[in-house]
Amino acid sequence: MVKRHQERGKLLVRDRIEELIDSDTPFLEFSPLAAYGLYKDEVPSAGIITGIGVVNGREVMIIANDATVKGGTYYPLTVKKHLR
Which parts of the sequence belong to the CoA carboxyltransferase N-terminal domain (predicted)? Predict the structure, then answer.
């Protein structure tokens, strides 16, 4: 799925976040191991990336769906992570 996504000229979710946040600033990702060991390990990070980054000099909360994980489908743990 990742290869097909890239062949279509689309950025991967973490690459999109890197483009969004200010240069040379960190991104503090929350719960990267969410859903680990569940759903036959086909839903890394519960299919959603969440964290804090700096955009235009302001700290912001970032929530980004990972389209390479089942086309961005929400699972129960995706919802739980999103709500946290």
Answer: 1-84
